[in-house]
Amino acid sequence: NELRDTTLFLPFDFAEQFDLCISEIMADPSPPVLLPETEYIEIHNRSLTAYNLRNWQLVVGAKKIVLPPYHMAAGSYLLICDSSFTAQFQGVPAVGVHWPSSFLPNSGSSILLYNAFGDLIFQSEYDPDYAQNEAKSNGGWSLERIDLENLCAHAELWQASKNPSGGTPGYENSVQV
User: Cα–Cα distance between 132 and 118 in angstroms, integer?
Assistant: First the structure.
């Protein structure tokens, strides 16, 4: 049984640095505004390629989250949160994971996103002072990246959400320039 004149196309795309970025961070959900009272991270696929996020990792300090299989379309947004809260974000593209307690320190930290091969795809710092609004830096408001094309780690590229719910998880940010 010989296979003749057959071409198999096996698509396999490797994500490159900055193809995906961290676009929103809810490190301090208390007191809640109108969103569920839980930490979350939103990522945005900036590329023209869809990726399977299976075995990708989010790392903060010594803690890490391994992502389950999820087909993330080009140009899309994805909310990552504790699996016990995904149902509370109705209509939001979300992946539930085992979220370690206080994964995102309220005082700020560095978040790293690695693909399944261990390549660093994105790194971001955050700090409550990035809110640029003292009233919103005390919890309940997410930090949103204001420019998804300028991916430097500067504090001025983050701002507290302007959305009345306290954030825009799974959707385009309210503070984009």
Answer: 34
CA angle 5, 10, 16 (to 5 degrees): 145
How far is CA 26 from each of CA 2, 70, 156, 177, rounded to the nearest angstrom?
A: 56, 21, 17, 20
71 DSSP β-pair partners: 52
What tokens appear for 18 in the block? 């900055």
The alpha carbon of 143 is separated from its chain's Cα centroid by a whole number of angstroms, namely 11
Per-residue model confidence as pLDDT tens digits over 96-144: 999 988 899 999 899 999 999 999 999 999 998 888 888 898 899 999 9
Tell me: the pLDDT tens digits for 69-91? 999 999 999 999 999 999 999 88
Q: What are phi and psi of 129, to 5 degrees?
A: -65, -20
CB of 30 within 8 A of CB of 140?
yes
* Placement of tokens 């990708």 in the chain: 56
Spatial CA neighbour of 15 closest among 112, 95, 116: 116
Q: Residue 70, class by beta-carbon neighbours within 10 Å (0-12 exposed, 13-18 middle, 19+ buried)? A: middle
Half-sphere exposure of 97 (CA within 13 A, CB side): 26
Q: pTM for the full model?
A: 0.89
Q: Distance between CA 142 and CA 159 in Å, rounded?
A: 8
Quote the Cα angle for 95-117-171, to 5°: 30
